[in-house]
Amino acid sequence: MYDLKNWDLPGWAIGTSYVYAWDAKPSSNPIYDQSKRIRESAWNADIMYTVQEGRAKGTLFKLHYTRYDNHSDIPSYEGGFGNIFQDEKDVKFNVIMPFTIF
């Protein structure tokens, strides 16, 4: 994450990441083509704001976007790959508030 306080934006931060994976193998069950391999990639971007003062000090607001790409034509959860799915886009908005019980 990159803190934007040096840009006169205290409490704001941004970040991004990327991953590429290859050679995922199917289940070892012989009914599946053991020569099949999967390639996949994903990237995400985040923007966050943390309240700096007042009663809500420390509360974090986070917007998170993910784009996942399965570079195969195998249908979701099939072909011996029981935990893969096809392309996906996600948008999440989180609010995290600190509190004290005692």
From TrEMBL:
GO cellular component: membrane
UniProt GO MF annotations: porin activity
Keywords of the record: Signal, Transport
Entry superkingdom: Bacteria
Pfam families registered for this protein in UniProt: OprD (PF03573)
InterPro entries, sorted: OM_porin_bac, Porin_dom_sf
BP GO terms, sorted: oligosaccharide transport
Family note: Belongs to the outer membrane porin (Opr) (TC 1.B.25) family.
PANTHER family documented for this protein: CHITOPORIN (PTHR34596:SF2)
Protein name per Swiss-Prot or TrEMBL: Outer membrane porin, OprD family
